[in-house]
Structure formats: C-alpha cells, structure tokens
Amino acid sequence: MQERLKARARELLGDGVVTRVLGWKKGEFSYDITPAVFESAEELERDFVFDGFCGANLSKYLIQEASKPGKGKILVFLKPCDSYSYGELLKEHRIAKENVYAVGIPCEGMADADRIRARGIDGILGIEHEGEDFLVHTLYGDERVSVKEALAERCLSCKSKRHASCDELIGEEGEDVPDDVRFTEVARLEAMTPEERFEFWRGELSRCVRCNACRNVCPACSCENCVFDNPASGISQKAAADPFEENMYHIIRAFHVAGRCTDCGECSRVCPEHIPLHLLNRKFIKDIDELYGAYRAGESEDGKNPLVSYTEGDVEPSVVNERGRA
Amino acid sequence: MQVNEEFVPTIVAFCCNWCSYAGADLSGTNRLPYPANVKIIRVPCSCRVNPTFILRAFQRGADGVIICGCHPGDCHYTTGNYYTRRRMTLLFSMLDYLGIERARTRVEWVSAAEGQKFAETMRSFVKDVTALGPNRRLEDLRCRKD
Amino acid sequence: MQKIGVFVCHCGTNIAATVDVKAVVDALAKEPSVVFAADYPYMCSESGQNLIKDAIREHELTGVVICSCSPRMHEVTFRRAAASAGLNPYLVEVANIREQCSWIHKDKAEATEKAIILGRAAIAKALLNAPLIAGESPVTKRALVIGGGIAGIQTALDIAEAGFPVDIVEQKPTIGGKMAQIDKTFPTLDCSACILTPKMVECAQNENIRIFSYSEVESVSGFVGSFTVKIRKKARYVDEVKCTGCGLCTEKCPVKNVPNEFNLGFDNRRAVYIPFAQAIPKIAVIDPDRCNMLKNGKCGLCSRVCEAGAINYKQTDEIVEEHYGAIVAATGYEISDVTRYGEYAYTESKDVITSLEFERLTNAAGPTGGVLLRPSDGKHPHTIVFIQCVGSRCVLEKGKPYCSKICCMYTAKHAMLTREKYPDTEVYVFYIDVRTPGKNFDEFYRRAAEEFGVHYIKGAVGKIVPRADGTLDVQAADLIMDEQLRISADLVVLAAAIEPSKTARKLATMLTASMDTNDFFTEAHPKLRPVESPTAGIFLSGVCQGPKDIPETVSQAGACAAKVIGLLSKNKLTGNPCVAHSDELMCNGCSSCANVCPYGAITYLDKEFRMPDRTTKVRRVASVNPAVCQGCGACTVACPSGAMDLSGFSNSQIMAEVDAICR
Amino acid sequence: MNKQDLKEEIVRMSGSAVEKCMRCGKCSASCPSYEDMEYHPHEFVYLVEKGDIEKLMASESIYKCLTCFACVERCPRGVEPAKVVEAVRLIVIREQGMNRLKPDDIPGLWDKDLPQQAIVTAMRKYTK
Amino acid sequence: MTKIAYYPGCTLKNKARALDEEARAAARLLGYEFEEIDEWQCCGGAFTTSRDEIATKLAAARALTWARDHGGRVVTVCSACYNVLKQTNAAFRTDSEFAAKVSRYEKTDPPYRGEAEVVHWFELLRDEIGFDKLRAAVKKPLKGRKIAPYYGCLLLRPSETLAFDSPENPTVMEDFIRALGAEPVRYAMRNECCGGYLTLEDRDAAKKRSAAVLSSAVEMGADCMITACPLCLYNLTKNAAGPLEIRYFTDVLAEALGLKEGGENA
Fold it and tell me: Is the per-residue pLDDT at A324 higher than 70?
C-alpha cells in the first residue's frame, strides 16, 4: 500500500494537480510517526511512510496548509475515520476545499506501539499487516502479534471503513462496521454509582497536566484561539491549580466538540497521561444518538449538527434523572 | 452523606427576562414565599446560559444551579429555549456521568403567569439540594468558605 | 477609576418593612469603587430621580446601581434619569430587592442579607457595563407586498389608505389569486367575484399602489427599514402602457389549443391571452412557449390587428430595483398533488376532480357557464361523492400532517349549492370529522345536512373503480353503520390538501424568514405576534402563514397592514443596543452562531488579517447586523471560542454576577 | 397475560403505532375481506389500542385477513392494520393446540390443481 | 450472458413447471442465465410480519445469503417468492436484532445484513433489458389481443419495501403487454387481492374476490389475463367461471418470442 500511495502522490505532483503532499514520515523511532508535508518526488521517496503505525489523523493540518495563498492544491491521504474529521471541517468552513485534493485510503486498523512493546517486543523497525496478524520487524528479527492484541483502542471499536468526503479513492470502498463494542465502556461507567463514577474520573482527570496535547491534536478543537485563552470568556486559565479546573477544562472541551466530534480517538492517543478522554466524547455521542437519533459528525458536508438544531418534541432535561432511575 | 441540619445551600437561578424572571416577579407580587438562598440572575433568554456559567457557579461554591425559561414553543425569541433544552440535557447528563449529583442541576419552564409554579419550583429545588448537602465535587477548594 | 453610586429604595414600606435599608446602604457603601450610597423612600418619584441625577453630576459617577423594584418595572425610568444627567443609560443596573426579595421573605435579617448580595451582584455587573449607544436607522416609507391574492390585495389597500406607497409583486399576469377562481363564498354564499373585483379595481386606481404583475422577486438585501429588492418583470411581449385590453389579439390568435390555467384546463385559451375578463391589469400577455412568432418567427397576426401597436416580440425581462421599509409575504397556497393517491383514480377518470375544479365547473363565468356537467361526457351528474381530507392529516411522506381547515366548509357549500340547484342529484360527503369553528359555520354545515338532505357519512373511501358505463364505483366504509358501502357515482370531488406556494421556500431564504417543516412561514410569536416574522421588517399575510379561509385572511391582512403602518410611520428606528457582536480575532467562521440565529442576523465576510510574520491571511469571520439582532444570546453559547458576546449581558458580566452571589 | 401486557405484546410484534389512528376508516374501506369479518380492520386497531383484545382473539375475523396490505398501503397515519391482525392471530395460534389447520386436514381440502403455494401459505397463516 | 442466482419456488418446480421452463428459455434468449440456488427451500408463501418470527424467515434468509455469495442478486418469477424474499431482506436491513439472531443461529460468516438484492423477472425486463429490446426480440407479436394485467397484492405491497411499481397505478405489466404487441386493458381491480390462501378454508370468500377481479377486467373488454402468481392463477381459473383465459406472463412471453413453436406444451 505504501508504494501505491507514493506512486499516486508522485503522479499527482508530476501532473501538477497538487503542489504538496500531506502524509506521514518516521519520527525518532519507527513507531512514532509524524505528519509531514512533502514537496517533491525525492522527499516522498526518502521519507514517506504508510504502515500500521500511521494512526495520526491528517485532516486538522489542512486548516493551515490549505489556507496558504498561492501555494496551490495539497494532496492529503485520509483513512476512513480521518475523512469524517475532514468532512466536519469542510462543513464548518475551516478548510478551503478548492485547495485540497483528498485521497481516501483503506485502513485495516492501526497498531498501538505501547501494546506491542508491552509484550516484550523491542527494537521495533516497522510493521505490516499480514492476514490476522501484524508482522513486526525488529532489530532482532520479525515477530508476529495478532491484530486484536495490537490494535489501538479506537481501532478496536472502528465505526466505519467507508469514507465520508474525498475526491478519489485508492482501493476498495469499505463499509460501516456495526457498533458492538464502541459504547461498552461508557455503559459500564453509566452503570456505576455516582460515587464510583466520581472516583473514577477523579482518578483519571487528576493526572491531567494541562499540556493541551488533546486540544492541539483534536480536529474538532480547531479554534483560532481557544476559549480558555480568551480573556473575555471569564474562564481563561493556563495551568490547573485546583482539581476543579481539570473538570472545567475537560467538560467544556467535550461540550464544545459535542455533535462535532467524529470519535477519531486522537485525544486519548496523544495524552501523555493516558487519560481516556474519548470516553467523555463518546458519552456525548451516545446521548445524542439515543436522545436525538443516530448522528455521525462529518458524514455530510452540509446540514446542522445536533447542538445547533432541535425538534419541538425533544426530550426534557429531566430525562437525565429518569434514565438514572431506570 | 451526612446532612448537616443547619446547612443552607447557595442556589443560583438563571431566569429568562420574558417569562421566568417575570414569573419570579409575580410570585413576589402575590407574596408567595420561597427560600432566601435562591438568587436570581437575569438573562435575556435561557439560551444565553453558557455551561461555563454553571460550572463557574459550582466552582465558587454554589450548591445548586437552576435554569428557568419560557415553555418550549413560547420563547420570546422563538427558538432559544429549544437550544437550551438540548444543551442542558447533554450537559447535565455529562455532569451525572462525572459523578456530580443529578439533583444539583435542573431546568424548569416557568411562564410569566406562573408565579405559583416559580415559588413551588424553588422550594422543591432547595429541598432537593439541601438533602444532598454541600457541593464538594465541583468546588474549587481555593474558593471554599469556612 | 470607576465611581459607582448606589441608591436603595424603601418603596414606602414595601421594601423597608422586611429589608433593613440602612444596613444595605452601609454594606454596599463599603464595596470597592462605590463612592456614593444613599437611600430614599421612593426612588422612582421625581425627587428620588433628582437625587440620582444630582449624585451623578456631583460625584462624576461612572455607574449607577439602584436597589428597588423589578427592572421590568422601572429600569426605563432610571435609565432616562441617568441619561438626562449625562450618563449613558446603559451604565445603570437595577437590583430587584422588592419582587424577588422583600415581598417573599418575612425574616428581616434574611431579607437584608439577600438584598445586600443582590446589590453586590448588581455592582459587579455595573463595573463591567460599557456605554452603549442604540443605533438609529432610517425608514424607507414604502412597503412591498409579495403576492396579489386577497391577502396581498387587502394588506396593500390598507397600507395605501394610511398614505404609504405600496408595491404588489404578483407572479401571474393578473392579481386576484385563488379567490378570483371561486364561485361563491361560505357561509353567506355571496359571489366571490362580486366582492373581490371591486377591491382589485381599487388597487389599480389607488395612487399609492403600484402593481408589478407577471413579476417575481429576484433578490432581497438590507434589513428592517431599508430593504433593497430586485424585481424581475417577465417579458409579456406586450407594451403595458400601450395595450388597452381590447382583446382583439386574443380573438385573432390562430393558436387555439392552449389549456386555460384559469379554468384549470377545462377549456382552452390562445397563445396571446388575458387571463379573465376582470383581470387587473387588463393587459394581454403572450405565452412564449406557444406563440408561433416567438418560436419560429412565423405569424405576427396579433401585431397586425393591434391598433394600439402594443405588441412587441422583442421585449425582454426587465430587472427593477426598489427600496422598501417593510416587506409582506402573501404568497398564498396551491392545491396539493392528488395523483399521489392512486386509489382515488384522479388520473384514470376525468370525472374525479378537485374542489377547485368543481368551483370552475359551477362558476357562471366558468367553462360550462355555471351548469354542472361531467367533464367526461358533458352530462348532468345524478350522484356526487365528496371525499374529505385527501392528503390532509396524512403523516406519510406524500401527505400533509396538518388540517387544511377550509375543506369542511367549502364542501358543505358545494353540497348545499348542488342540492339547491339540482334537487334530483344525490350528494354524499365522506368525512373523518366535520370541523366548523367560525361564526355561523356550524349552522351552515347543519343546514346542508338538515335542509338540503346532503348525506354525511362518517368514514373514508378506500377505492374508486371507474366502470365501463362511465360511472364510478366508490368503495367506502360507513363507520357508524359499521358496513362497507358501494356507491355508483357520476362525479367524485376530492377535497385536496392545500399547501404553501412552491415559491415560498425560495422567498423565505431571500428574506431570511423562518419556515416550519411544511413550508408555512413561522410567526414571531404564535399568540402575541401572529402577523410578524421573527425577522424584523418581514410581515405575514394570509395562507402563507397557515391554512385560513377568506374572512380570516382578510382580518390577518388588515392586522398585518397595521403593523406595517406602525413601522412606516416612524422616521427612524432605534435599535436595541444589547445585541451580539463577534471578536474577529477569535472567530473561526464555523457558522455555529448563524445556525442558531433565529433572525438571520449573522453573515460572514472573508477578511484579511495581518499575521505576526507580516504575511496576510484571509479568514472567514462572522459579522452581526445590529439592526437585525434581537439579543437573545443563542449564538454566544454556540460559539466555541467565545468570540461571540452579548452587549449588556456579556460573558464576563454574568460571571461577575455569579461570583458575587457565590462569594 | 393481562390486558396491558397483551397490548404491549401485540404492539411489539406488529411494530404498529395504533395510537396514531385517527379513526378515518380508510383501512376498512379498502379491505377486500370486509364482509367476511366480524371485526374490521379499524376495529382491530381501536380494540388493541383500548386493550380489549380477547374479543378479537375469539373472533373468526383473524382468519379472514388476506394480508393483502391494502389497508397498510392506504392508511394515512402509517398504522399498518394488517400487521395488527397478524399479531393477534399469532398470539392465538401460538397457544398449545390452537393450530387452525392440521396436516391431517389437507387431504380433505385437496384439489388436483391446487398449487403448493396455497398449502404452504395456509399452513403458515393458520399453524404454528 | 449474464449469470444471476435464481429462486424458482415450490410451485414452479411442481404444478407450474411450465412457468419455470418458459422463464428460463426466455431469459436465455434475452441474455440471462438463471442459476438455480443450491438446495433452496420453500419460502413459505407468505411473509410473517411479526418481528419476533425467526423460524419462518430462515428459508428466505438462506437463499438470500447464497445469493449474496453468488453474484449478489437473486431473481424470482413468482410474486409470492418475490414478496417473501424482499420483505425478509428488508428485515435484515432495518432490524439489526433480527439480523443478529438469524446470523447467530445460521452461523453465517460474515453475518448476513441484507446485502443481496432481490429482483423480479419483470424488473429485469423493465430496467435492464428494456421493453424496446424486448419488442425487437418478439417474433410473433400478439396482435389484436386484449390482455388484462393482474398484479394482485404480492408484487406491489408493501410498496415502501418492495418498490416494485406504483402501488395504485402500476405500469410495468402494461408496458410488457405492449412490448409483446398486444393491447393492455386498464381496469381498476388489477391491484386488488384474488382471495389468496383463503381458498383452502373458505372457498366462497375466495370466489367473491376472484369474481370481482375478473368481472372488472371483462367489463373493460379483456380477452385474456396474465399473472405472475400460481395462487392467483388457480383462484382466477378455478374459483370464478368466466370467458377469460388466465395465463402466466411467462407463457405469453414465450409465445411472443416464438419459443412455443417447437411443439413444447403450454
């Protein structure tokens, strides 16, 4: 697949359809892959990678990259889940669509390097899909890890292998994946007593160091200036001096992306403290689906998201108490 | 949780100018009492209430927050309270999910003619919050009163 | 440095009986920035107001807090007092210590403590008040009425009568609308044309009214008081000034087989035509799709016979730009498509017709000269079945979920008139409910049943089977007898649902007026502002707002005119300065705010920003039109970055109140 | 089953929104089996909504519905009466010994031209 | 030659064998190879609407799964099979609980979720072959014949699920008749039920239904009636005496295409 993507990128660069390519390249370690812009076939040849560690969602980078005047079109590779983030950003007019050439690429799930290393595999050099397994190349030879044991959390509950918005597709279009396990963890928390839930979240959120990685990576958290940096908002703050501020920050962040979050899972992926932030977003998604009908952010480039629309027959807020009792 | 007999909760009530604030005025005009620990903040419409206001109230030591607006369909601005309804439903559900006691937050629709309902609502809300005791879960410890 | 003055009112004993006013003054005087604090028995009295004015001047106050009755009571009074002393009126805050404090509490200590807290909250808010200046905008003293049916005609006449110029834009070649096609009107049975045509003539003759017939609204911009509207005058190929309406061209035109829209296709018109004898304006129009001269340059007969020389084959559409202070939507309704109900065999048999078609078949000026004859064979029908609720109250996608409101009454009228004129004809009406709320309506319906022997059957028709002998086999249920009936009918009349004009949705978008899911315009308040759109300066007249009959339409048209007159009689509009505004540097241009704005007050601009590295960047940013914004604040919460804020109720002000209360 | 449970069971099985019925009677006006039925489609909907279901269960009408869906197609409220009738019939024939048609009956009903389809359909309609 | 999975159904393999053979012959001529589904089982003739009915839908489910794995489509000639297969397929698409239960029970891998497409031979004729091509293939136009199309209920309803044609004013059979060179007769009872399975238990009731259909067609001048359903054919032939000849549509199709000349019996 990597070679196919490279070839197509070279073609599009060569034809002048695009002037730059947004893709992935290896970081310090082979498994720490970072988004990168390539401007020539040579750069592509040298640095472009696409393998089982390319979890990073490239769509958010387009806000900057596609707004550079006079720079022409940029090619971007979007995995199915990334394409929803891209669709949502298009809907919110955050990306100049005319400056983007989006290529949908298939995804069989991305690996979590930590889970692989936890199995005692070190010196990782690369990774490939092979049937039911990941084939991990290491300094010490190849190792096999079953896909289920190495997949990133968000890929375990993959929503769709079907793309939302893109101009071209490489490979076969996939299909939606039925939601079997996606909300299991949210439901487990919901079933706890309020005290248990409070303790759970206290334990998780108290680790927050306000590094803002979640905010920076989130394709929905794309504000020019964050409300927490807005002196007129009355809530601007930098570091958490009190547990309350972690609560405030994460509740408001989740609320602001509610109805816009595509559940791409980047927030949890990048959190250095491994706080399961996606469980906040998923709670909103679950509630929206249950209360206002199934909705998938980013699926369409137009229409209104659930928090800026309503129906006259919406449930009353007291439903929260009633559901709690049931 | 042990309930302190003398505990008097701090309650913030956001009332929309056109219906609920007028409803609150009417309960005054009709001399219908409700506890003095309820303090009303006037907003043009319930849809003006930002979740940050609610969290801020809890941060600074409020024990309960209630939002009152026109009945759905009667909004002075036609649609404002429909947005309130969605936003607050989701926000309250999230607070519940974080383990914040459900009874600390409420939305009620009170029209300008419902002075009685306003007073009753406040009495019942204060009762519910009093039973829960002081807010400890969303409070900013630095702001704690003695 | 802020200088706040605090004024605590006793309101006689209304406040002072339960609140220790002096203690409040003492406590609030100690608040930071408070430089003056006083109490007075009646702060709203003239001397009370003078106390405030004097203090403002003497202490050079930058803000005023009044602890008194509800701001809903005297906020305006105190603002005016401040303004007269040279202080911006929006620097005044009122703490409600009467309705929301002294009147509800008995314990003086408790009430006093609460009054102090309310006062502090008001001070906290006042410290963040900014002087606001209500914008003023001019009012163009001319109204536009879109739609020339009875709703538009009545609204235009009433506005013109009050002395304001009005333009009517009508898409058809003549005004008159549906009412011109109707035979008689319920419940009085007076002739529709007899009461409508004088009003049409009045429109033509009134100096304040201009009629743009055969025209459409092309675009609308601006806001209340100053709208700019482009109107497309479609080419008639007839000079409006020269044409005398003699009708000679319409007699000589060789194209004779064009279905006549006015008679719903029951007869034909020519390619050049005048819709009907009483048309206003009475000017011919050439149908470009049928005229031989326009299609292939062969003919020109009308031009040769026209003595006035009015025919002009080279005419093109013309765009006229006009300015208005107010716009009235009066786009009316259409008959919904009954072919979607195949079981009624509308497409299978000519003798299954809609109620409007029935009107034409019984109208003295109609294709049969008012003699009721079957469309298929021109014979007199002896059994007629009327079916109610065809498409109305139908929750399926093909139907309309609402009640069309007029069908029960016009069907009673049709049934009664048929029985009166043709006593040998049996008339059956299948109904679900007979709905007759209206003056003399139920009496009218009962007369049809009692005096005229119309057979009202509670039940529905399941299928109509056209028979070889030309009859229609009507298979129905009689729910009261609990039996299935078969009636052999000669004519079946469908009470088709009415639906808003197909043009309304496009118009609503241009007007930024909101619509419901059925494409009816939404009113600003269903009870209290029923003739205004939530968008300022847009008014609603007639069925475009919801189904109504003629008397209701005329009353609403008058009410609508009164609202328009009220607006146009102002020289300037003073806005509410407590409106939203967006911080361009914070705005993402994501459209969340515009999505929740009920007034369409928010637009987006592509704005160039200088970046720190000296490059420029173009970003989409929101811009609020203060004349359109009503200040609800929905946008401020929808905005994730906090770029959107509301003057008078800003984020930091409400936060300050919260802090003061929770302190 | 008590009244309420029975009603809920029928609503669940049929998926029909009986409460949406506005009593227009178009189902019964469309029904080809009307004259052979004691309770007619609109009455099925009405009685189920009222929870008065025993009457329907005891009636021969449940075996007269052809499931031709004319009522479903024409109902302006999307109520789907035919599915209600079928649910009531299933409740009855699912009870022990309530099979309407038994394999032994078939030879007696046999006709050399009768297509298999007639038999399998009838078995499905009348038998559990 | 386009291969397509074919579900013949019980009656076509038995009482209505001609219907099956003629359909295949005509299909071959028009470029389709009907590939009979392996070990198909009878669809049961009627779709049980109740959502908790699983067992009665299994035969259809197996056929659909087979079709998914063999080209993705299944064609039927019989109205009842069409109705049952298509409604079952819709249940798979809309009722995930049902789909999950069946897949668990059948151990279908991957689970079946309604991926296959169910088509009636009429739909192939209309939408893929086209009536113009059919008209061109006709060797013996049925000139002067006045044929009444009988749709019945199973092809048309529920229209939301079947989406075969307009439920009240269908046209596909009329167009088909025209393509064969005959004149279609329009009559209102063409979409009303013939009495169906009631014939087994209450023949009188079935007789009344069939008589109403037939007399309506006769009144409008028909001399022949065509149907796609064996049970309709039986009811209209046996339960109502009339001057009309009742035939399978495949039979008149075979005749017009000249497939009956070789001495094959009708």
Answer: no
